[in-house]
Specification:
InterPro entries: GH, Glyco_hydro_5, Glycosyl_hydrolase_5. Its main location: membrane. It is a single-pass type II membrane protein. Keywords: Cell membrane, Cell wall biogenesis/degradation, Glycoprotein, Glycosidase, Hydrolase, Membrane, Signal-anchor, Transmembrane, Transmembrane helix. By secondary structure, the chain is an alpha/beta fold. It has a domain of about 270 residues: Glycosidases (TIM Barrel), CATH 3.20.20.80. About 35% of the residues lie in helices and about 10% in strands. An eight-stranded parallel beta sheet has the order 7-6-5-4-3-2-1-8. The protein is globular and about 55 Å long. The two termini are about 20 Å apart. The mean pLDDT is about 95.
Length: about 400
C-alpha cells in the first residue's frame, strides 16, 4: 500500500516562520534559543498552550476526512523531558497515538532534531550549528532516544514506523546550502567548528540505530532512513546490509529545484518533476522502498517573485506585501504541480505533505504573500490539492 500522508510540522518541533507569535518579544530564531530568551514560567506557558491548541483530536478527524492514512510527526531529542531547559512532549505523542488508532490512521515518528544540530537548519532546532556527529556522547544519547521510542510504541497498532534522524547534512549539502549564511548562528562560538557530516558516519549511525530500534520494534513496522540529500547514492549500502522493512525517505521541493537551476515557469517545473523527481524515485524504488517524506506546492512562480530557494523575510528577503498572481493563476499553477508531483511520488511508496497547517499571517504580514501553499488545509480549501473523502 502506498502511503498518503501529511506532516504535523511545528507542533512538537518549532519553526519560527510557521508560528511567529510563539517567538514574539524575543530575538530567538530557533527552538534552542527560545527558552533562553524567556523566563521559565513564560516559556512553559507558551509551549503548553501551543501544544494543546495547535493540534487536537479534531485535526486527526480532518486528516482522515481528506482520505489520508498516515501522519509523520516530527519530535525533538528532548521528547522525554530530560534536557533542560526544554519541556518534554511524550504525553502529546501518547495522545496522538490514541487519536490515530481511534480514527484509523498510522503514525511515522520522525526524530527531527539532535543536540548540537545535525544540519544547522532552523528546523534542526539550532541555526548555524552542526556538531552533533562530533560528540560521541550526544550520538549515544540520540540512540537511546530511539530505543525508548521503539520500546514505548513498537507494538502499538497505530505505529507505521520510526525515522531515525531527519535531514542529516553531508559535507556536500552543507556547502551547497551555504548553511551558516542562510541560518547564521546566534552564538558565533557555538557555530565554530560546524561542518557537514561524512556519509560514512551517517551510514554507520543508521546501522546502529536500526539494531537498537529492532530490539524493541517488530519487523512488520518500518525503519526509515533519510537519504541525506543524495537519493541515488544508497544502492551499494542496501545491497550489503541485511535490513528488514527499511524505507528510504527523500525530501523534494520545487524551491530546491530552483536552486539547482530549474527555471521559474510551469513548463520547466513539470519537466523537472518528471526528469528528476519521478525518474530518480522509480530507479531507487527498484531496490528499496522510497517515500517522499516532505514536499509541498510552494514555488516562486506562484509567489510572483524569486524566493532564492524558499528564503523568507527571516532570511533577509523583502518579499512582496501583496499578491502578484490572481487567484485563478495561482490555482492553475498549483493544480498542475500537485498533479505532477503526486504522480512522481507514486513511482515510489508514497508521500507526506509539509505541512498540515501554518500560523503565519500571509495576508497582513509584509513579505509573506505566496507562502500559504505550505498549509495543506488552505491548499485543500482553495482547490489546489486533490482529496478523496473517506469519512
Amino acid at each position: 500500500m502506498k502511503v498518503n500522508g501529511v506532516n504535523l510540522g511545528n507542533w512538537l518541533v518549532l519553526e519560527k516562520w510557521m508560528s511567529p507569535g510563539l517567538f514574539e518579544g524575543t530575538d530567538a530564531a530557533d527552538e534552542y534559543w527560545l527558552p533562553r530568551s524567556l523566563t521559565k514560567e513564560v516559556y512553559e506557558a507558551r509551549i503548553q498552550i501551543h501544544r494543546s491548541e495547535y493540534i487536537t483530536e479534531r485535526d486527526f478527524v480532518t486528516i482522515r476526512s481528506w482520505g489520508m492514512d498516515t501522519i509523520r510527526i516530527p519530535v525533538p531529542y528532548f521528547i522525554f523531558g530530560d534536557r533542560e531547559p526544554f519541556f518534554g512532549c511524550i504525553n502529546e505523542l501518547d495522545q496522538a497515538f490514541n487519536w490515530a488508532e481511534k480514527y484509523g490512521l498510522k503514525i511515522l515518528i520522525d526524530l527531527h532534531t539532535a543536540p548540537e544540530g545535525q544540519n544547522g537548519f532552523d528546523n534542526g532546532g539550532i541555526s548555524g550549528v552542526c556538531k552533533w556527529a562530533q560528540n560521541p556522547q550526544e550520538v549515544e544519547f540520540v540512540l537511546t532516544v530511539l530505543e525508548r521510542l521503539a520500546k514505548r510504541y513498537g507494538t502499538r497498532s497505530g505505529l507505521w514506523g520510526i525515522e531515525v534522524l531527519n535531514e542529516p547534512a553531508t559535507e556536500a549539502i552543507w556547502e551547497f546550502m551555504n548553511v551558516q549564511k542562510r541560518y547564521p548562528p546566534k552564538d558565533e562560538a557555538m557555530g565554530k567548528g560546524s561542518c557537514g557530516i561524512p556519509i560514512s558516519f551517517i551510514k554507520q549511525f543508521y546501522r546502529e540505530a536500526y539494531k537498537r530500534i529492532r530490539a524493541f520494534m517488530p519487523e512488520e513496522k518500518h525503519v526509515v532512513f533519510h537519504d541525506a540529500f543524495d537519493l541515488s547514492g544508497w544502492k551499494e549500502f542496501f545491497e550489503h546490509e541485511n535490513f528488514q522493512n527499511i524505507v528510504l525517505d527523500t525530501h523534494q521541493y520545487l524551491m530546491m529545484a530552483e536552486m539547482m537551476g530549474c527555471g521559474q515557469n510551469l513548463n520547466e517545473y513539470l519537466d523537472y518533476i518528471q526528469t528528476h523527481f519521478a525518474n530518480e524515485i522509480e530507479k531507487v524504488q527498484a531496490y528499496v522502498p522510497v517515500i517522499c517524506g516532505e514536499w509541498c506546492l510552494f514555488n516562486s512562480l506562484a509567489c510572483g517573485w524569486d524566493t532564492k530557494g524558499g528564503q523568507t523575510v527571516l532570511n533577509g528577503l523583502e518579499g512582496s506585501d501583496k499578491e502578484l498572481k490572481s487567484a485563478e493563476e495561482k490555482k492553475e499553477i498549483y493544480q498542475a504541480v500537485a498533479k505532477a508531483q503526486l504522480t512522481a511520488w507514486n513511482k515510489g511508496s508514497g508521500h507526506f505533505y509539509w505541512s498540515y497547517k501554518l500560523l503565519t499571517d500571509t495576508v497582513n504580514t509584509s513579505g509573506w504573500s505566496g507562502w500559504d501553499s505550505w498549509d495543506l488545509g488552505r491548499c485543500v480549501d482553495f482547490g489546489w490539492f486533490p482529496v478523496k473523502s473517506k469519512i
